[in-house]
Fold this sequence. Notes:
By secondary structure, this protein is mostly helical.
Amino acid sequence: xxxxxxxxxxxxxxxxxxxxxxxxxxxxxxxxxxxxxxxxxxxxxxxxxxxxxxxxxxxxxxxxxxxxxxxxxxxxxxxxxxxxxxxxxxxxxxxxxxxxxxxxxxxxxxxxxxxxxxxxxxxxxxxxxxxxxxxxxxxxxxxxxxxxxxxxxxxxxxxxxxxxxxxxxxxxxxxxxxxxxxxxxxxxxxxxxxxxxxxxxxxxxxxxxxxxxxxxxxxxxxxxxxxxxxx
Length: 231
């Protein structure tokens, strides 16, 4: 967020960018998956929009948005860890993966409304577990699970692959549209899109052009002959 600028929180949460990303996540989910997981993300966003409608104070809105970011990040952490263990167990749950992607996109949008320093503090706090020692609160990193770390890497790889597939899909759609446009041009010019028929018509046009050129040559010769008689 730019210093001194009050964000339009509702506009960010209802942006076309977020809507498009969510549609992509949903399209990658299995149609038979648990749609409730995805609806829960919509409900999470919509509930906070209702809060913003009631709370008009900009300072309160900024604070609540920071709290909302922490809440969404907690849901995202839980979803990612669960997805990691399911992949390690050889289970496929596209609805869960879609929910994780939707939460990630929501986090990215909310981050644009917050100060980077505040985001960093929350991220550090949520990446470690509190432990009480000698009357003081210290933070310890959770034990690393090799399988989970590998799964996280797999998830990142899958997200990259999905992005590349979406780009390829867009390229193919553009190519298909160009082909349709070219077919429309051929239909308008030749009355058909059949290659053999077009070749035949081109040959016919070439023959007619050659015949016209011969006639034009004959006319020129006749005009030259008439000119000689006139002299």
